[in-house]
Amino acid sequence: MKKKQIYIFANWKMYLDYDESNIFANRFSNVVKEISKEINVVVFPEALSLYTVGQVLGDVGVGVGAQNVYWLDKGGYTGEISAKMYKDAGCKYSLVGHSERRHIFNETNQEVRKKLEAILSKKMIPVLCVGETAKERKTGKADKIIEIQLRSALSGLTLNAKKEIIIAYEPVWAIGTGQACDADEAERMHALIAKIVKKMAIKANFKILYGGSVDSGNVSAYLIKKTINGVLVGGASAKFESWYKILKTAEKLNKK
Ligand code: PEP
């Protein structure tokens, strides 16, 4: 029987600078052979180190992705980097709609949609992040917010059953707080996301990951859940020891 793929994605945010990212990538490349091919590993470094990190990790089967893109290819958009430019630099994936983009940089659902379309048009795989704030959860609006974010990003897209789209359920209150979402509740939210996407009748190959204070101590609680295809890890992915432990845990579960 074909084994299920497990997705372990590392969002390095702005935690590692150019030298640190490259040192990490080299160190990681030396141990990556311990990880089976059923474990799909992708790192999202800052933009300046992405190319050299990709050169080192690409050779050992690890993907690289952008943390954010601009939707137009070229032009007078000071400070922006387009999906096309990331693709040319070797990116296969891109995050889109990460909560730090939505809440620190005021990115709207409309902008997320434009970015997602740009990523797809370059034949990259989007990692669409959705999640509710603490206030939205407290007031019973979590499910509705997720539905709004999903519908505005995905409605009406014409894709095909082979097109991979990754959705990361990342509750805002769990990002970088050490307060991870209970695994049973994450599983419920994943089932909800799967149901909404099914209702939208978009032909695509959807995978759903959990993100929010995942570390080596709690990762297995998520990975054993049926509706959870993997994890998107922030803080704990930028420290080599915790990252290595997370991958070893995934590897152990994969071997079972
Ligand atoms: C993230 O930023 O995508 C994330 C999951 O962060 P953390 O693991 O640090 O909560």
Describe the protein's topology:
Blueprint: E1 6-11, H1 18-31, E2 39-44, H2 50-58, E3 63-66, H3 83-88, E4 93-96, H4 99-103, H5 109-121, E5 125-130, H6 134-138, H7 142-154, E6 164-169, H8 183-200, E7 205-211, H9 219-223, E8 230-233, H10 240-255
Parallel strand pairs: 1-2, 1-8, 2-3, 3-4, 4-5, 5-6, 6-7, 7-8
Helix pairs in contact: 1-2, 5-7, 7-8
The structure holds phosphoenolpyruvate (PEP).
List keywords for this structure.
about 260 residues; alpha/beta; TIM Barrel; eight-stranded parallel β-barrel; about 15% strand; globular; binds phosphoenolpyruvate
Brief synopsis:
The protein is α/β, with parallel strands linked by helices and about 260 residues long. About 40% of the residues lie in helices and about 15% in strands. The protein has ten helices and eight strands.
